[in-house]
Structures are given as C-alpha cells and as structure tokens.
Amino acid sequence: YDVILLNGAVEEVPSTLLAQLRDGGRLAGVVGQGPSGKATLYRASGRGISGRSPSGWPISNSTSPAMPCW
Question: Which of 20, 21, 24, 40 could cross-link with 31 by S-S, CB 3.0 to 4.6 Å?
Fold first, then answer.
C-alpha cells in the first residue's frame, strides 16, 4: 500500500501491516497505551521501515480509543 492509516490506538504496530507497505509507503496511527499514546509515522524503504524505533517518528501526543485485538 502507499498509505495505511490506523483509525484508533494500538500498543504496537503489527509487523504484518508494516510488511504491506510498498517502497516509500507510509503508515500513521496512534501508538501507546491510554493517555500516553502518540500520533506516529512510519515509512517503508528498500532497507526496511524507517522511524521504526519502538514508537516510530512521534508527531504529537494523542488520546484515541484502543483498536480491537488483531
């Protein structure tokens, strides 16, 4: 995919979603627990997922309802 947008919060972005990004594709969503979540951006490149620290590239603090389990 070019872009994947998570419409809710996750504790950790599933690797199965990151694997579906094409080269240059981006994934954005809220990562964390409860009020400590951060809007986060990941970007796929030929060398893997950039921004893939435990929290990607934090964009801002955010509170979003948790998504159901995968």
Answer: 40
In the chain, the N- to C-terminal Cα span, in Å, equals: 19
Percent of the chain with pLDDT over 90: 26
Distance from C-alpha of 4 to C-alpha of 8, rounded to nearest angstrom: 12
Computed over every residue of the chain, the mean pLDDT equals: 78
Q: 0.90 exceeded by the pTM? A: no
Q: Which amino acid is at 37?
A: G
Tell me the three state secondary structure of residue 15: helix
Task: Evaluate whether 5 touches 13 at the Cβ level (below 8 Å).
Answer: no
d(CA 37, CA 60): 9
Note the pLDDT of residue 45: 86
